[in-house]
Amino acid sequence: MKPFRIAVPQADLDDLARRLADTRWPAEMPDCGWDRGVPLDYLRELADYWRTSYDWRAAEAKLNSYPQFTTEIDGANVHFLHVRSPEPTAVPLLISHGWPGSVVEFLDVIGPLTDPRAHGGDPADAFHLVIPALPGFGFSGPAREPGWNVPRIAAAWAELMRRLGYQRYIPQGGDVGSWITLTLAGLDAEHVAGAHVNFLFTAPPPDPAALAGLAPGDRERLELLARFLADGSGYMLLQATRPQTLAYGLTDSPVGQLAWIVEKFREWSDSAKVPEDAIDRDRILTNVMVYWLTATAGSSAQFYYETADQLPTAPTPPAAPPPLPVPLGVAVFPRDSARPVRRFAEAAFPNIVQWHEFDRGGHFAALEEPDLFVDDLRAFARLVAR
Description:
Elements: E1 2-3, H1 10-21, H2 40-52, H3 56-64, E2 68-73, E3 76-83, E4 91-96, H4 110-114, E5 127-132, H5 150-163, E6 170-173, H6 176-187, E7 195-197, H7 216-232, H8 234-241, H9 243-252, H10 254-267, H11 281-294, H12 297-306, E8 328-332, H13 342-348, E9 352-357, H14 365-368, H15 370-384
Parallel strand pairs: 4-5, 4-6, 6-7, 7-8, 8-9
Antiparallel strand pairs: 1-2, 2-3, 3-5
Helix pairs in contact: 1-2, 5-6, 8-12, 9-10, 9-12, 10-11
């Protein structure tokens, strides 16, 4: 394992500013709002802020304030944050991000999770944190070969925790990080105290009788899932089928990369009109910068190609997950892109020991509602690891 520090050359930042200034803007249909994609006026203003006001060096310093490392696992470079708690009884916690996220999602929760004593909490709730960037994402860089699907990433995470000397730990994940978390829990059950997710797909069983007696709120969740698959999953289909073609535009155009990501921050977050209603603007741009500066728009999209048969958009429904051999905690946020039906979740995962429904927040829980995210993880760890 090698210590790692982010040091982006000034030439890269100058190139970004030039590209933003020289953007060739498209026309748009009038009075469409967000219905056809990111509105032109909004994106022009955000891009101008990115070019003239956003401070990457401040974000870089924030990231570099935490210990970072790289290591090679199964032929892939893996970048990760490893922040140990000052508390000797801290529980190891592995957090997996998804797309279009990054390790940036968790900057606001690192302090409270690792050092609750310094943040008004109980020192008994402390965690040692391991936050890796998925192969193909961010500072892990492009994967060197195909085949980096969910089981392979989960196996790499088990190896990472072994190398760090953690014999007992909790994996946590949102978005595709939740699939990795659940797979890791089954793969490395001997060392996993319990798994926690803040995103869970629960498609209805093929038997229509399973819908009998379903509460109105649960029917609304199934309708939300159907709308997502019909209207909100285009990004998934494109990345799962033609990731290389997509990569050219996103790697060459910072505004293209910005639009591709910021649309999801708006659609999947607890925002009223614009993503900044839910998430700090500079955090959004820092997350976009991680993709832009590392040129990993295409390599991160490859993840969907590798897992196409397991996506909810697959031609045939994915196979039912195997029984989870460890306790599971589920945090449900109301403005997520899809919300699980508890009856279906418990049929698939009988070991659910914690299920919390929150009244605010969306897909990017650690960014939108860091206090709720931290409290839920603390409560889960008390159940399974204390």
